[in-house]
Amino acid sequence: MEKRIVILGGGESGCGAAVLAKKLGFDVFLSDFGRIADKYKLMLDEQQILWEEQGHTKELILNAGEVIKSPGIPNEAPIIVEIKNAGIPIISEIEFAGRYTRAKMVCITGSNGKTTTTSLIYHIFREAGLDVGLAGNIGNSLALQVAQGDRDYYIVELSSFQLDNMYEFRANVAVLLNITPDHLDRYGYNMQNYVDAKLRILQNQQPDDAFVYWNDDPIINKELPKYSHGKLYPFAEEKREGTAAYTHEEKLVFTEPTPFNMELEELSLTGKHNLYNSMAAGISANVAGIRKETIREALSTFAGVEHRLEKVATIDGVEYINDSKATNVNSCWYALQSMKKKTILILGGKDKGNDYNEIAGLVKEKCCGLVFLGADNSKLLEFFKEFGLPIADTHSIEECVREAHRMAKSGETVLLSPCCASFDLFKSYEDRGRQFKNLVCKLQ
After folding, report:
1. Catalytic annotation, residues
2. What is the tens place of the pLDDT at every residue in 280-339?
3. Which residue, 54, 76, 171, 217, has most beta carbons within 10 Å?
4. Cα 6 vs. chain centroid, distance in angstroms?
5. Rounded distance, CA 332 to CA 130, Å?
6. Domains of the chain
């Protein structure tokens, strides 16, 4: 009898897994507690995959041989608890797809900088003419790409949620950018649970694999002795013993496997956080054997990522920047650190157990006004009320942009870098960022 695969969640990840499972000859059923987008319904119907939406039919789920769970579904969801109680294995779409490809995997995780670094590595590999796919949290799902025809390399952005349900998957190059508090609401407000999830990227690494990481991250340094891993390629702003990348006299220096350097001013991405992202990407490409000339050129031509310190427009002398992807406090810290002008900061959304003390010093130093954007801004109002800054308390993107425009003077910057998830008022951080950009452009 053919094995039954049940997929929970009908988004990019789930539908890709369903298509691959069907192609492999499994008995496939997909169930989504919410609505499934029309484009995914069409994909499922074309492949003759049975599906349901707006609820789970237990009889059609609890007879599975294996369940593939969308990373967005929490482990406490009633259907997940029942599946576990029934002894049915639960895996991620990445874990499933990884069984059916021989491609080399370059995998990136971290609390901040994942999407930029993943996109940058993909850019370098494409510029090198390699057969490469972009997957994970961005691009088409890994499973769909494997179903449609395999590649030599996949560059995969991995969230902690995806890593939670990965067991045999192997990262040939594992990149860990940093670990700071994030998603603590999904980890029982226990930082160690979140840290453990991030370090799952190292499971199954072989001695000839590579582990690329930020040398100055205290959590990574504390945890590293607990884990086996491939060859170490640490990067840091200043030279340390064994560092694979560092800066010296306005140059970015790569030491191994192929030594080379480039002028810092040649890097297309600016700010200290992007320096680290460029180091991680350059090392990953160097390890893969890409020519230093190609790496150097690609690091200088990369165009950046939407919703990540994205310049929108300059209106009446005020620069507007969309950093909607800053869904945690540390990400906002990096954004504020890179601001050169006085800033009106837009904060707010679904709080994930945030501690705003981390940005308090930078807010005092860099900001000349605050605009709160959320269904409930009481925590923000309470924390920032003593800072002596003008504050606007808004509950819609229209009101938010209007207040920011009113508050800002020529020569200042309006920065949307919310620290919070978007789900109180928006479908996603992309939806939040695009609505912000559209309204800003209407100010002209």
Report:
1. 114, 137, 183
2. 999 999 999 999 999 999 999 998 778 988 889 999 999 999 999 999 898 899 899 889
3. 171
4. 26
5. 34
6. 4-91 (3.40.50.720), 95-301 (3.40.1190.10), 310-442 (3.90.190.20)
